[in-house]
Design brief:
Layout (H helix, E strand, L loop, with lengths): L5 E8 L10 E8 L6 H11 L19 E4 L2 E4 L11 E5 L5 E4 L2 E3 H11 L21 H11 L6 H4 L2 H5 L5 H13 L7 H8 L13 H5 L6 H15 L1 H15 L6
Parallel strand pairs: 1-5
Antiparallel strand pairs: 1-2, 3-4, 3-5, 6-7
Helix pairs in contact: 3-6, 6-9, 7-9
The structure holds iron/sulfur cluster (2 copies) and FE2/S2 (inorganic) cluster.
The site of one iron/sulfur cluster has 12 residues, from helix 5 and helix 8.
């Protein structure tokens, strides 16, 4: 039987509330146990080596989204990451883009709330609310597609892995684009394509995305983000197709050679 490894954790430490501290990396060592996850390792470190270490966990089963962090340069859910799948030295850093609370803990909630307000992520309907009305029916296929988008656990991995979100605060990010598509697909949402165009079609929306698909690669729930982006691009182009055709035909007329009178 092979000997248990000694794992070296290089952990980002910083408390933004304490002006006397500076960001730095702290090393911790521990023996690897069978079936060790980063959740268990971080708890071991906090309980035995440094009680001040900050990190977030709630469900421990890839459901709540709170334990996302950068592990050896890649955004992942720490609760479902086994040390056996990693090298001896494991570097842990907080997700970028989100506000740092301390060490490995970030405030994803504020970012997701801001994004939801920006894209108005709720059903827009002019129908008066009738609590006694029977539930509206929906095609199974459509309900399944909407459910796919709803599987997002708001962990922030896709946002942290997105080069555009890293450089632009106003970009709604892959999770925002996914949320927009969810409401655009929903027949109960009465927003017209033209209204969506204002929200989605600028650099802050789908046309800001450079399409390298890091978001889909790192999504722990394997959401089909590539399909979501393609759907949004198609919808936006089609919603403006009549205007585009009108402009093209006007330009053609202007540039057509004049017939001598
Ligand atoms: S495909 Fe678009 S949204 Fe996804 S990571 Fe790349 S730039 Fe960001
Ligand atoms: S789309 Fe995936 S990676 Fe992005 S927040 Fe949702 S679950 Fe996390
Ligand atoms: S602790 Fe909930 S997703 Fe990891």
């Amino acid at each position: 039987m092979s000997e248990a490894r000694t794992l070296v954790f290089e952990i980002f430490r910083y408390n933004p509330q304490d002006p006397d501290t500076a960001p730095h990396i702290q090393r911790f060592e521990m023996r690897e146990e069978p079936h060790l996850t980063l959740y268990l390792a971080l708890n071991y470190i906090r309980e035995n080596l440094d009680p001040s270490l900050q990190f977030d966990f709630a469900c421990r089963s890839a459901v709540c989204g709170s334990c996302a962090m950068i592990v050896n340069g890649r955004p992942v859910l720490a609760c479902r990451t086994r040390t056996a799948d990693l090298a001896n030295t494991i570097r842990l850093q907080p997700l970028p883009v989100f506000e740092l609370i301390g060490d490995l803990s970030v405030d994803t909630g504020r970012w997701f709330r801001g994004m939801a307000e920006k894209v108005e992520a709720w059903i827009h309907s002019n129908e008066p609310f009738d609590p006694s009305a029977p539930e509206e029916r929906m095609e199974d296929e459509l309900a399944r597609t909407i459910y796919e988008s709803e599987r997002c656990i708001e962990c922030g991995c896709c946002v942290a892995g997105c080069g555009v979100a890293l450089t632009r605060d106003d970009f709604v990010g892959p999770a925002g684009l996914n949320r927009i598509a969810r409401f655009m697909l929903d027949p109960r949402d009465q927003r017209e394509d033209a209204e969506w165009f204002e929200v989605v079609s600028s650099d802050e929306g789908v046309f800001g995305c450079i399409g390298l698909m890091a978001c889909q690669d790192v999504c722990p729930k394997e959401l089909p983000l590539l399909e979501v982006h393609a759907y949004l691009r198609r919808k936006m182009l089609l919603s403006k197709a009549p205007d585009l055709l009108k402009n093209i035909s006007a330009r053609r007329k202007e540039s057509a050679p004049k017939t001598p009178s």
